[in-house]
């Protein structure tokens, strides 16, 4: 009776076959032909020595011997050709399946609920899910499935030959191979446990390794002499890895030695018994031709059953490594359907008694937040660090969901809106914004036309308008390739690297480009110099033209050009009004404003 664990592995195996069927079903055809052709080729090779020996020692004429050899050689060559062609096709299909499976994984990462990406347990699951993809384990599994099929087909063919000679020899061979297989399974589990233990360690080690090559960190590494500190962190993980290697090495070596001994004993017994039969001892004498068949068949049978056990053990082990990939694929996604009410342009945005705590933490970040924002209004959020400002806009973006209360868009709860149409109404500039290794116009338009890298005419004029609105026109016109200039010199030789302020302006241009009714700007001027920041403030109404805007900034001067100000402190709203009102009535706002204003003199 199968254990629960065995049944689970069988279910996982069939799940893997289902993935193959759905992603690259052609691989089953190449699998069938390579299996049948390999088995047929083996049987023909087993019989070939008998034909030669019986023909030479019998009464065959040279012509008859030559004819039979020619026919057998032709069959062997044909089966070999079919096997090689089918194997080539299998390798091609295997590569296609692995590539497509990695694409499915990549799309899954992009569609995951954002909150899962900040969960350490999910990060560890992601590391385990990547393991079979990055370690070529999928290739290995498909090869093992193919080899198991070939071994099984050979066992059926060669086993019949061996059983017709002596059934007990075949049974003895099976028993010895099963003992060897048991040892291999034990060794496989030791190595599997070792690999699973290493994955969290490797994730941390590789994180530090990745830090060493990140361009934005190189100044700090050099100026603060951080090399030794990073090396110490990595050394701790390396020492742990080495310790675990030593722990399993001796045990694994003993098991492998015992398994090889079983195979050697099995061969010795079979050769000895067959030699006795050729001498007429222990049974009916056999011819030299039959002697050659038995020796070759027993060797092929032993190799095939050993290979079958090896591959089954490997598949059993590998399917357990693939299990996290399946679990990762089943994680909840971020709005993968088109259900819900179609979002219309913003008329009102309202928070009603919204509270929020980050998953697996106890600290309340937002506590009973309520406010309303009307179309065309510009609202700024101010407050101390960790007051909940950036969290509030993450809730608007549906990156997280409130624990209590609701967020209403035109009177409709945002979770009831169709996600795709809702996100079209939002334009963001995040505090930790990112630009991508695309061309400048692609970064701004987020547009792919499938026609290469040339900017379409219908896109160019709109992109240039956005570039002008953030005062980047001169900087881009100075570039030889203009809007077609690539970003990121790690990937493109003829690329450019903008300053932090210029990159932030491009991020703002991307938000301006989007035909959204609501703009959210989280510290959009943090990387700008005072003059550039002043230009943004002076031109703010043009920048967010026709959009309702929510603005987050630690620069208190930004609050003066906004219609209304919300003051957040410890996750609650403690102030709601315009600049003049809050200066008089809100002590925290007054303190924050004066803390910056005292360093400036008013120019008269």
In short:
The chain has 604 residues and is α/β, with parallel strands linked by helices. Helices cover 62% and strands 11% of the residues. A hairpin with a 2-residue loop joins β4 and β5.
Topology:
Blueprint: H1 4-23, H2 27-57, H3 62-111, H4 120-134, H5 137-165, H6 167-211, H7 218-223, H8 227-278, H9 288-329, E1 348-357, E2 364-374, E3 378-383, H10 389-396, E4 404-409, E5 412-413, H11 419-424, E6 426-429, H12 440-445, H13 457-469, H14 473-477, E7 486-487, E8 495-496, H15 500-513, E9 518-522, H16 530-538, H17 540-543, E10 548-552, E11 564-569, E12 572-577, H18 579-585, H19 587-597
Parallel strand pairs: 3-10, 3-11, 6-9, 7-8, 9-10
Antiparallel strand pairs: 1-2, 1-4, 4-5, 11-12
Q: Can you walk through the features of this model?
A:
- There is one protein chain.
- With 604 residues, the chain is α/β, with parallel strands linked by helices.
- It has two domains: 4-329, ABC transporter transmembrane region fold; 347-425 and 516-525 and 552-604, Rossmann fold (3-Layer(aba) Sandwich), CATH 3.40.50.
- Helices cover 62% and strands 11% of the residues.
- The chain contains 19 helices and twelve strands.
- The protein has helices at residues 4-23, 27-57, 62-111, 120-134, 137-165, 167-211, 218-223, 227-278, 288-329, 389-396, 419-424, 440-445, 457-469, 473-477, 500-513, 530-538, 540-543, 579-585, 587-597, and strands at 348-357, 364-374, 378-383, 404-409, 412-413, 426-429, 486-487, 495-496, 518-522, 548-552, 564-569, 572-577.
- A six-stranded mixed sheet has the order 6-9-10-3-11-12, sandwiched between helices. Strands 2-1-4-5 form a four-stranded antiparallel sheet, with helices on one face. Strands 7-8 form a two-stranded parallel ribbon.
- Helix 4 crosses helix 6 and helix 18 crosses helix 19 (587-597).
- The radius of gyration is 35 Å and the shape is elongated.
- The relative contact order is 0.08.
- The model has no long low-confidence stretch (mean pLDDT 81).
């Amino acid at each position: 009776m199968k254990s629960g664990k065995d049944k689970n592995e069988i279910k996982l195996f069939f799940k893997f076959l289902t993935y193959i069927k759905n992603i690259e079903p052609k691989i089953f055809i190449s699998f069938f032909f390579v299996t049948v052709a390999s088995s047929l080729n083996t049987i023909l090779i087993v019989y070939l020595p008998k034909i030669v020996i019986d023909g030479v020692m019998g009464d065959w004429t040279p012509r008859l011997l030559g004819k039979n050899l020619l026919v057998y050689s032709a069959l062997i060559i044909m089966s070999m050709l079919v096997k090689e062609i089918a194997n080539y096709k299998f390798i091609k299909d295997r590569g296609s399946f692995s590539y497509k499976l990695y694409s499915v994984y990549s799309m899954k990462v992009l569609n995951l609920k954002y909150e899962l990406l900040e969960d350490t347990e999910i990060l560890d699951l992601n590391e385990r899910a990547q393991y079979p993809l990055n370690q070529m384990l999928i290739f290995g599994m498909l090869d093992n499935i193919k080899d198991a099929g070939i071994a099984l087909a050979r066992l059926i063919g060669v086993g019949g030959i061996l059983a017709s000679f002596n059934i007990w020899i075949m049974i003895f061979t099976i028993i010895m191979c099963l003992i060897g297989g048991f040892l291999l399974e034990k060794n496989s589990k030791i190595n599997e446990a070792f690999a699973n233990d290493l994955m969290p360690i490797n994730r941390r080690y590789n994180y530090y390794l990745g830090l060493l090559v990140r361009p934005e960190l190189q100044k700090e590494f050099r100026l603060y002499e951080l090399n030794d500190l990073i090396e110490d962190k990595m050394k701790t993980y390396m020492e742990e890895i080495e310790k675990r290697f030593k722990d399993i090495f001796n045990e694994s070596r003993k098991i492998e030695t015992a398994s090889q001994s079983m195979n050697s004993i099995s061969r010795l017994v079979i050769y000895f018994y067959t030699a006795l039969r050729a001498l007429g001892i222990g049974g009916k004498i056999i011819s030299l031709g039959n002697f050659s068949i038995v020796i070759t068949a027993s060797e092929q049978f032993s190799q095939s059953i050993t290979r079958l056990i090896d591959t089954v053990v490997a598949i059993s082990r590998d399917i357990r490594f693939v299990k996290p990939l399946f679990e990762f694929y089943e994680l909840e996604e971020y709005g993968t359907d088109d259900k819900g009410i179609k979002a219309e342009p913003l008329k009102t945005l309202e928070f009603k008694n919204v509270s929020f705590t980050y998953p697996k933490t106890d600290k309340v970040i937002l506590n009973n937040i309520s406010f309303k924002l009307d179309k065309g209004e510009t609202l700024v959020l101010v407050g101390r660090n960790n007051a909940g400002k950036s969290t509030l806009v993450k809730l608007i973006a549906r990156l997280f969901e409130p624990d209590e209360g609701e967020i209403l868009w035109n009177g409709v709860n945002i979770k009831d809106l169709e996600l795709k149409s809702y996100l079209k109404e939002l334009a963001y500039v995040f505090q930790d914004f990112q630009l991508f290794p695309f061309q400048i116009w692609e970064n701004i338009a987020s547009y792919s036309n499938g026609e290469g890298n040339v900017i379409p005419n219908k896109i160019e004029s709109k992109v240039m308008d956005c570039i002008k609105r953030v005062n980047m026109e001169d900087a881009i016109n100075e570039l030889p390739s203009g809007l077609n200039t690539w970003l990121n010199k790690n990937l493109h030789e003829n690329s450019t690297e903008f300053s932090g302020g210029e990159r932030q302006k491009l991020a703002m241009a991307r938000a301006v480009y989007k035909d959204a009714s609501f703009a959210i700007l989280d510290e959009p001027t943090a990387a700008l110099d005072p003059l550039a920041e002043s230009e943004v403030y002076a031109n703010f109404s043009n920048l967010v033209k026709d959009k309702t805007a929510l603005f987050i900034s630690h620069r208190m001067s930004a609050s003066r050009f906004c219609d209304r100000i919300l003051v957040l402190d410890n996750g609650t709203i403690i102030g709601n009004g315009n600049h003049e009102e809050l200066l008089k009535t809100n002590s925290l706002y007054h303190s924050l404003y004066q803390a910056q204003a005292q360093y400036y003199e008013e120019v008269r």
